[in-house]
Amino acid sequence: MHRRRRNGGWMLTGAAVAAVLATALTGCAPQPGPSDWTLEPIPFGAERADIAYGMSHLTPDGDGGFWAVSSGSWLHVDAEEETVARFNAPLDSPLSRVTAMATLSPTELVVVRDEGAPVLAVLDTSTMSMRDLPGEAPSGSGGPTDFGDFEFGDVAVQSGAAIVIRYRVGDDGALGYEVLRVSLDDGARTLLHSEPLDWSDAPGSSPDLPPVDVDVDATGAVHLATRTARVVLEPDGAERSRAAQNAERPHVAVAADGTALWWGGGARDSAEQGVVVGGSSEARASIEARSGCADALLLTDAGGDEHPLPFLCGANAAARVGDSWVVAIGGEGDGVLVRLVPPSRS
C-alpha cells in the first residue's frame, strides 16, 4: 500500500455523498476503515500539483507507475509517485498524435497514432522512438470497402501481442468493429471478434465514431466496453459474457484476476463507501462533483457479480496500476488523477 494512503479524508456514501463531502471540506473527516475504498489525488511535477488539465489516456509503466497522455502532453509517474517525465510533444512529432496506448514492458508501449490513416507502433520509452508495424492498405478495387485500415480505436496487450479495435465500413455503409490480435513482430493479424455499431452512437467528437474501450486480464480474457454493452471474450475470441448498458463514454479497466471497473449507465444504489485521502481543496472539489453524473462506476468481481460504486462517475480514462487503479477525471482546470484503492477486507 502506498506510503501516503493512511492520511485523513472524507466519506462518500450512496445518496448522502454530497452532504458528507461537504462536511469533509470543513475538516470533520473520518479515517478510512477496512471496508472503505480510498480515493487519493496524485500530485505530479516539480510543484507537486494535483489539479491541472484532464488526461485522456492512461497505462501502467510495467514497474508500478503509470503513463498519462492528453493532446500531446505526456506524464510519467513512478511507483513512489515521483514525476519521471513531463513534456509537451512538438506538433510535428509522432508523439503528439498518439490516440491510444497499452503497456508491453517497462520500456515499451504499444500505441495507436493518427497519421491520416491509423498506425500501430511500438514506442521505446527510453528513447521515445517508435517502430511502426505494417498496416492494411486499400484493396485498390475502388469500391465502397476500399478503405484499408479505416480507423483504429483502443489498444491492449495480450501475451506479447496487441489487441486492437479496428473500425470497418461495409458495402452498404454499415459500421462495425473488429477485435484483432496483431503480432508485434511482423504485424500479422488474427480476427477474434466482430459486431455491428450504429453511426448514431458516435459522440460527435473526433474521430466521430462510437467509442469501444478494451482491456485484458492475466488469463488473456478480453474485456470490451461499448455504449450499449459490457462484453467479455475468451482469449480465443469466444464470447464469455455480455450485459446491456447505456453509456455516453464507456471505459473498462481490469485487474489481473479479472476484477473490472466499468463506466456506463446511471447510478445505482450502493452499500459501498469511499474516503478521499489528502489532496488540495480544488482536487477534492473535482472528485466531489463526480459523485452523481452520467456513466456511473460499476465493479464486476472475478466471479462476475456486480457492485455499483457511488464515486468517480464520468471518467476520462482508467488503468489498473499495481494493487489499485488510477483514474483520470475532469477537464481544463479541474483535471485530477485519482488513485482508487479497494477495501482491505477479504
Average residue pLDDT: 87
Could you estimate the helical fraction of the residues in percent? under 10%
The fraction of residues in strands falls at 35-45%
> What order do the helices and strands follow?
EHEEEEEEEEEEEEEEEEEEEEHEEEEE
Distance between the termini: 15 Å
- Rg estimate, integer Å: 20 Å
Q: Which spans have pLDDT < 50 for at least 5 consecutive residues?
A: 1-27, 138-147
What are the SSEs and their pairings?
Elements: E1 9-13, H1 17-25, E2 37-41, E3 57-60, E4 66-70, E5 73-77, E6 83-88, E7 98-105, E8 108-115, E9 117-124, E10 129-132, E11 151-158, E12 161-169, E13 175-182, E14 189-197, E15 213-216, E16 222-225, E17 229-233, E18 239-244, E19 251-254, E20 260-263, E21 273-277, H2 281-288, E22 297-300, E23 306-309, E24 317-321, E25 324-329, E26 336-341
Parallel strand pairs: 2-21
Antiparallel strand pairs: 1-21, 2-26, 3-4, 4-5, 5-6, 7-8, 8-9, 9-10, 11-12, 12-13, 13-14, 15-16, 16-17, 17-18, 19-20, 20-22, 22-23, 24-25, 25-26
